[in-house]
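Hey, I'm writing a tutorial for new members on how sequence and structure tokens pair up, and I'd like a real worked example in the thread rather than a made-up one. If someone can provide the structure for the chain below, I'll link this post from the tutorial.
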Amino acid sequence: MIQNPETPYAHLDPGMILDAIESIHFKCSGSLLALNSYENRVYQIGIEDEAPIIAKFYRPNRWTDAAILEEHQFAQELMSLEIPVIAPLVINQKTLHHFREFRFAVFPRKGGRALELDNYEQVEWMGRFVGRLHAVSATRTFKHRMKIDIEHYGYIPYQFLMKNHFIPEHLQTNYAFVVEAILKKIAEIFKSIEPVRLIRLHGDCHAGNVLWNAEGPQIVDLDDCLTGPAIQDIWMLLSGDQDHVHYQLEQILEGYQQFFDFNYRELKLIEPLRTLRMIMYSGWLAARWNDPAFHVSFPWFNTGFYWQEQLQHLNEQLQLLMQIET
């Protein structure tokens, strides 16, 4: 069966999902619950006389098999050193499975509650957790995962948006001017703090990817793991007004440095990385816009109001970037 790259999950119906799971010798009860996920398709699946499992069907053509296996190996490495992550189950000596045109992995179901960013004990604990994670991350390198840089997070999504005419015509000139000024300034900021140690990262370390239980935090998704500066896994945990963010950062770094040294020059990268994420996020939505699930989940995207607001936010970010000495 030939996949349509614009609607890659069109044939992933409940029957195929259950058949895929039974192909690796689980006996499904018939219970199937879709979980919140946009890039991939994730389901809780009932198993007869056993606990339910979580199955993740990877978006076709996004990662190579080697890149997915490197994600799995990273998770298993962390888990083997008692750093709590939810790693894929090894079934038939494999973590990555194939069924028809899809690739999938299965995970144990874990419970927990959300990280409370206004609970400073939890925030410091999270700092210790990330410090431990990075202490392990820094011992090896990725060979098949992406690197967070201006090219992948800036120029590529920006050029995709322009080439495919997502930016309204009356905003294109201003949008291009602001983004190009941003990317030039970000390049200067990165250069001004070199050398920066690049390590393996979670890559998408926000509160939504953390489950909290009696034992503390555990990471639930390494799908975006990549190579980059340590601050990437720290700034995404920050939330609130300036005073709140400042105190959160102090607490995180206090815990973090109990396990791994932090290069304070990287604090200059918080706003550049935040700005790159804004550009990348718009490009990500645009690249997935033919997936019907994205129209349902992001109905506000690609409206005139969205792009006007994006332009305003990017102008604000440019002003913040210009205040950073290089």
